Automatic annotation (TrEMBL), chain A:
It comes from the Bacteria. Its main location: membrane. One of its GO terms (cellular component) is plasma membrane. This is Protein-export membrane protein SecF. The keyword Cell membrane applies. Forms a complex with SecD. Part of the essential Sec protein translocation apparatus which comprises SecA, SecYEG and auxiliary proteins SecDF-YajC and YidC.
Automatic annotation (TrEMBL), chain B:
It comes from the Bacteria. InterPro entries: Acrflvin-R, SecD, SecD-TM, SecD/SecF_arch_bac, SecD/SecF_CS, SecD_1st, SecD_SecF_C, SecD_SecF_C_bact. Residues 2-104 form the SecD export protein N-terminal TM domain. The keyword Cell membrane applies. It comes from Aestuariirhabdus litorea. Belongs to the SecD/SecF family. SecD subfamily. This is Protein translocase subunit SecD. Forms a complex with SecF. Part of the essential Sec protein translocation apparatus which comprises SecA, SecYEG and auxiliary proteins SecDF-YajC and YidC. Residues 443-607 form the Protein export membrane protein SecD/SecF C-terminal domain. It is found in: Cell membrane.
Amino acid sequence: MSANKVINFMGARMLAAALSIALVLGSIASLAVNGLQFGLDFTGGTLVELGYDRAADLQKIRDDLGSAGFKDSVVQDYGSATDVLIRLTGDDPKLGDKVVDTLQAGYSGQIDLRRVEFVGPQVGEELREQGGLGMLLALALVMVYIAIRFQYKFAIGAVVALAHDVIITLGVFSILGVGFDLTVLAAVLSVIGYSLNDTIVVSDRIRENFRKMRKGTEIEIINASLTQTFGRTIITSLTTIMVLVALFYFGGEMIHAFALALLIGVGVGTYSSIYVAANILLFMDITREDLLPPQKEEDEADQMP
Amino acid sequence: MLNKYPFWKYLLIVVALVVGAIYALPNLYPDDPSIQISGLRTSLTIDQRTIERAEKSLVEANIPLKASELLEKSALLRLTDIEDQLAAKEAIQRAMGDDYVVALNLAPTTPEWLSSLGAGPMKLGLDLSGGVHFLLEVDMQRAVDTRLKVYNSEVRTLLRKERLRYRSAPDLDNGARQLMFADEQTRDEAVSRIADEFQELAINSYEEAEGFFLSFTLKETQVREIEDYAIKQNLTTVRNRVNELGVSEPLVQRQGRNRIVVQLPGVQDTAEAKRILGKTANLEFRLEATADAAASSTETFPFKENRQAPARLERNIIISGDRVSNAQSNFDENGRPQVNIRLDSSGGQLMNRATRDNVGRRMAVLFIEQKPTTRIETQEVNGEKVQVRVPGFREEREVISLATIQSALGTSFRITGLDGVGEASELALLLRAGALAAPMYFVEERTVGPSLGKDNIRMGINSVVIGFALVLIFMLVYYKVFGLFANIALTLNLALLVALMSMLSATLTLPGIAGIVLTVGMAVDANVLIFSRIKEELKNGLSAQRAIHEGYDRAFVTILDANITTLLVAVILYAVGTGPVKGFAVTLSLGIIISMFTAIVVTRAMVNLSFGGRQLKRLWI
């Protein structure tokens, strides 16, 4: 890229707006219809992880459990073919042993009970409330900070971009039917962090250019700002994604969903820092006057040698 | 001069790095799997002979031993292989007998010069080390009710003493106690006497067809005080019980208003742990009712494991188990098991007052046990009838001893007539561990097997190493010399993060590892911001020195804004989150702070050292 060649990002702003709206609406629709596959942390119940000494026959496990009277059990592979994850309703502390006894009866090899968790649903409810509360509180504080450091239009832009990223990340989880547990919640919250980071870097440059560039329309200034930060945006996303891909493939099953949430979040966050936050600024008719420093500071600056 | 740091700045960086390196170092020494032996009773001393006995049992079981040492109140035997740990525990437990607590442990191997500096390895969360996690909920309603019961008997005693005649009436729905009087005057007199004597009670008077009533319950401030007391008392009790289990580095913490978290790393036998923790037992000392006592002032209880006719006791409680300061099981003159009990001073006074005038009467020890249960209830949720499991408890009240008072009792006395040695020592253990102020039940339980924990660590570290390596290669290729600086800073960032977490004794969890990975990804951002700005300034025609200066300067504002907002999110996560979310928030916020230092200050120092103050034709970036 040469220094004076400006990419016309905002040329596609209407298209991007339409795409964003479609994605957000689609996500909301999926969330309304499919909901989220809330994990044990939220629903309560018992999770049993078993290690088989050879590849496990999931259908047989389901049949064995069904005929032994374990209702609504979910049986799935976990990592490798020898690891099995079973989710059951109920919170009998001996459930793990009972499941092993049941399955061992119809299996000649060794079954290893690796993990048992029972969690009360009440806890889940509380955590859901706390998580939701945490998100709202974080959003409010972030808005206040940006409004003070930048300007309220930037605060609205950043928060809309955030909501956009979070809703789409949740939407993808809903569409894929991936279990949503506490670690995924942590991931979604850090998507907020990442998306903010990205949006602020871009906003920072827009602010700087509005003050520095004497000529040019709003769209031209924003295009210039996005072009200048584009290299950095791509490199940072790339390095973060590299680490996340490593986490996804090598981090083990327990952080699979976590890595997935972050991968989606970082992808969407990168797009939104270019097309959502800046777009919102234009929709709100940002002007140079919005960003001029207060008169008093200007005077001081003029007096400086 | 452009791009020159004063000497003190370099010094500061070097000092920070050296300190960081020292505190990160202990993490390179892996823990030894080991077995810890301690006595079930304080009277049992652990000495060299104990170690020799344990060592002998290991030799017999053919388990190699690495080292053994005598600690203050316990013995520690280090093993060479973690696979041997369970077998070793069983062998030693067999050899030592039931009087000793034999527990699995992981003993640190930090060299002495490091631990003398206060350095130690990071703690690993349960998801990494394996172990059990319990969440207990304290039944506050019950705590309040128990206290109200004591007031109830005191109020009645007062009214009898004042010759204010009352009739008993059933408790109100909200738990308030109710008394009925024949006329208004007596009732009002009773109200004023009770109000004078018991300022903690909220009294309400009213009139109904049957007569004149007063009801009393605890004031709101009193209720809150009781709740606070109950959770504190239960915390202490749980801590004591956990200590009796002999677990190394247990975690017992209050969570929220009425919950207690217990984490026992290394423990796999959940049944045993639950048996000790979940035993919400309490004692009450009460006098046996006299034959002519009014039915309303007595209660009848069965004997524990003994089919005698049930005992009729007074409703009044002399003292309850929370006054017990120590209890030991041993044998009486005839070789029968007994429990020697010591009371605290106010308990001793109460006991003395009650027994002084009642020599010759019999006193009962009532054992109250709350067993956790789950009942199934049909509830309506969103218009649908759903079967919901409601955790609760069943209360069993049984007389464990009914003995004639030989003489006035004081702060120390004994309970005899117990069924066996086992029962005596268990009763002593429960008494010694302290009674619970209110019953608790298990809301949550998680177990992570040790092999799964090991897998988690291995995969977690693998993914960090791979992701980290990818980033290092990319940065080196893309930014050349500057990439090298960034890579050094990134490595320091990771080391400092480990050091800081060790210093703060923060616990590393699986999401915590994820937090570290994310930090690595995002710490790069600060350097990318700076370097791309330098590149840009070079393109704008600035000289190399000027471009470096401007690049750092301009990027700093952006980095600050971006990091402060992320930090805000992390801090809120820490404040509202629990468990895994908290672990993630800790590593993320520490990571952000450290990356501000390494990515800005440390790389600047390296850039200044290599390029500062020189004539540069062009910059390799």
